[in-house]
Amino acid sequence: MRPFIYQTHPQRIVFRAGALATLGAEADTLHARKLLVLCTPQQRDLAERAAEVLGARCAGIFDGAVMHVPVEQARLARSCAAELGADAVVAIGGGSTIGLGKAIALESDLPIVAVPTTYAGSEMTPIFGLTEGGLKRTGRDARVLPRTVVYDPDLTLGLPVAMSVTSGINAIAHAAEGLYAGDRTPVSDWMCREGIAALGRALPVIAAAGGERDSAELRAARSDALYGAWLCGAVLGSATVGLHHKLCHTLGGSYNLPHAETHTIVLPHALAYNAPAAPQAMAAIAAALGRPDATGPQAVFDLAASLGAAVALRDIGMREKDLDRACELALQAQYPNPRPLAQKEIRQLLDDAFHGLRPG
């Protein structure tokens, strides 16, 4: 047995259909009496449902969450929480909203109740990110870890198929890098394999359902996907990440590319780069996705392509002339990765991702 250290994080997890109705009781477990509900402008209706459940405990709604958490929005949200006298926040939505809750907690120590409606996994990590001046800064701080996470698969039934697919592959990325992290453990290895497998089963069912929003099969798949996202997010919270996440933070923060789509496109190429140094991890990824005949990078690429996701950076707004600068930014600081960082090869990785080439 390889020596390891496994650090658990204190969190309360509530997972069941209809769990949104327990929000008031969960606030009571935190002794919270004035909770500010956070959301994006597009999810205002969902935030109002949460506010209705909270009743008199709701201090108000801040619907200004946006992608990559610009510092300006973080300051507005902090000011709103202070003015309303909030003693906790409810972050309902995807990674952008939960990231905004973390930005508030980072300076105020307010506890977060996270209600995820995508598969981003941010709710399971002490990782925060803030974007300022075109650069995204990330860090770890125990204060930003949500105290309670309410997983309600019913809230994901209306998640559009395209968003479901890219959000799910974003979750797979957390576990894929966890399989070759230097601080991985037997526990995190199991969570990686189980999480990838759950999402690999669920996403094709969700994609095949198209516009259908309610059937026994779809409900089971939505539950599986959220379960997989929980496990993959827990891996992200307990193990270090490498080249893939660094590239995605660079591309997203510096070029304002959509988060989940960027992860979906870059992941097969980052895995291909690391494959020579992590063959067992690649085999585990392929096996978890039911593709032992393919390499791990190919299995991920084929999954994304078969589900209709974009597979080229040029298709989500990246400009070819920016690839050189993106490579420079990604190499500015050294970080853990199973294969040493090489400028020429990483530049080729970005070019392959830009053109959407299948890893060979």
Short description, anyone?
This protein is α/β, with parallel strands linked by helices and 360 residues long. 51% of the residues lie in helices and 11% in strands.
Would you spell out the secondary-structure blueprint of this structure?
Elements: E1 12-15, H1 23-29, E2 35-38, H2 44-54, E3 58-62, H3 71-84, E4 88-93, H4 95-108, E5 112-116, E6 127-132, E7 135-140, E8 148-151, H5 161-178, H6 186-209, H7 216-238, H8 243-255, H9 259-274, H10 279-288, H11 296-306, H12 323-330, H13 343-355
Parallel strand pairs: 1-8, 2-3, 2-4, 4-5, 5-8
Antiparallel strand pairs: 6-7
Helix pairs in contact: 3-4, 5-6, 5-7, 5-9, 6-7, 6-10, 8-9, 8-12, 9-11, 9-13, 10-11, 12-13
Describe this structure in words.
It is a single chain. The chain is α/β, with parallel strands linked by helices and 360 residues long. It folds into 2 domains: 12-156, Rossmann fold (3-Layer(aba) Sandwich); 161-355, Dehydroquinate synthase-like - alpha domain (Dehydroquinate synthase-like, alpha domain, Up-down Bundle). The protein has 13 helices and 8 strands. The chain has helices at residues 23-29, 44-54, 71-84, 95-108, 161-178, 186-209, 216-238, 243-255, 259-274, 279-288, 296-306, 323-330, 343-355, and strands at residues 12-15, 35-38, 58-62, 88-93, 112-116, 127-132, 135-140, 148-151. The strands form 2 sheets. It has a 6-stranded parallel beta sheet, with helices on both faces. A hairpin with a 2-residue loop joins strand 6 (127-132) and strand 7 (135-140). Helix 6 runs antiparallel to helix 7, helix 8 packs antiparallel against helix 9 (259-274) and helix 12 crosses helix 13 (343-355). The longest helix is centred in the middle third of the chain and has 24 residues, at 186-209. The chain is globular.
